[in-house]
Design brief:
Immunoglobulin-like, three-stranded antiparallel β-sheet, two-stranded antiparallel ribbon, 0% helix
Length: 78
């Protein structure tokens, strides 16, 4: 799962991989998959306050089979 930030802060300039799972499916098969993303993966270090901060705004979470093959995306508020 990749995220793209529409918020302020250093993390808004990149699309890091924050979680993944590898599964195999046969044609027509479906399966529920949960990917737990630690909060720290969504935060950035704020030098002025010397603390981890969670940017405010929206994030787009993407489900992909490869970085250039996004299958599903969802924007969520933070």
């Amino acid at each position: 799962m990749r995220r793209k930030s529409r918020s302020r802060g250093p993390s808004s300039r990149r699309r890091p991989l924050v979680g993944f799972d590898r599964i195999s499916l046969k044609a027509g098969e479906t399966r529920d998959v949960s990917i737990i993303v630690p909060l720290r993966k969504l935060q950035y270090w704020a030098t002025q306050s010397k603390s981890w901060q969670l940017p405010q705004g929206e994030r787009t979470l993407r489900l992909a089979s490869a970085s250039d093959n996004v299958r599903l995306s969802q924007t969520v508020p933070f």
